[in-house]
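From the pipeline queue, job 12 of 40. The input is one protein chain; the requested action is below.

Action: predict structure.
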Amino acid sequence: MNSFAFDASALAKHYSLETGADQVDYLFNQLTRDRLLCLMFGVAEVVSVLVRRRNGGVLSQAAFSQGLSNLKAEVLDDDDFSTLPTSNDVITAALPLIDKHSLNATDAIVLRVCLDLADLLRTEANDLVLVASDQRLLKAAQAEGLVTYDPETQPLAELEALVSA
């Protein structure tokens, strides 16, 4: 069984209409929350995306407020949705990935956490799918052996297969 880890670029799609939102919404509608996760600082990044879109006139105040309310209810307040912390040890372990894959620090941390979690899940005959739209992160994740899904470019049929696996 696959679990799905969102980076902020993918998670934000669920709270602000943009390309790929339907695929991310599909995951929220089809899966139990215990199969969905993100890093806690990814939640902060989603809030900053919503603020930028509101300030830029892309989101109305009502859509902004609704997005924040949904994020709180579906991610922060849902005990089954895993919001993973980032320790100094994880950050230190992620540093080599910055140079190896020419990643920014945030993406390297997301990748390190996903690699570690995938290793753990695989010991239980499960796996992890990284859901992201950042092409550099996706390429690095694939090079490291992670299963990935890009909601902006991959069809829903591929996501359905990953959900069923």
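Job complete. Helices lie at 8-11, 21-30, 40-55, 61-76, 88-101, 105-122, 135-143, 156-164.
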